[in-house]
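WARN no homologs supplied; continuing
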Amino acid sequence: MILYVVGFGSGSRGCMTGDAVQALSDSERIAGYQTYIQMIRPFFPEKEYCSTGMRQETERVRAALESAELRNTALVCSGDPELYGMAGLAYQLQPDYPAAEIRVIPGVSAAFSCGALLGAPLTHDFAVISLSDLLTPAEKIEKRLSLAAEADLVIVLYNPASKHRPDHLKHACDLILRHRPPETVCGFVRNAGRDGQESKVLTLSALRDTAVDMFTTVFIGNSETQVIGGKMVTPRGYRDV
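OK structure emitted
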């Protein structure tokens, strides 16, 4: 049988790809993080569900693989399952469940769904960095931030803060300010595609003192990023060709 590792986008039905909808429809059981299950359940109320809490990723994936040995099962991830999702872990654990075939179903990552709400911030090269230090040492995150800033990449920040680490974004901005001017164009989106959606374009210095949470995606522009008609835009030079 099949384990579909499904990226369902931001949580709205409109951000699910056709392949994601088909995979979820074809699955008898849907497994995932409890917050994601709450997002998916209204669209597929007839399905059997299995959920686990934060930091129970291994248990969640094992349960999904075990289920997929007997029936088609979907393991849901927000955004795309390869970007901070469960696709890699599913493949790591799959040898223990040889009867389960894995199929990864791509989704619309927050970098793109939130970027579209802000304008067009990712038209050129960019880096995606998570500020969560649960699985990555803080020193490595800091080095990646500094090098991305020095390389003049647009930077997209996932997991910019939580109640246990409220100052992570401020610290990240301080590191980036060593390489970027305070008037650098930035933006953030909170609750993309869901109730309470909020987006704003602002400067790097203003971003430093902005309150964010785990449902916020942050964009830090490069030296070419500008505000056009109130939108955050990073040109690639097409007009000059």
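The chain has two domains: 2-105, 110-233.
OK
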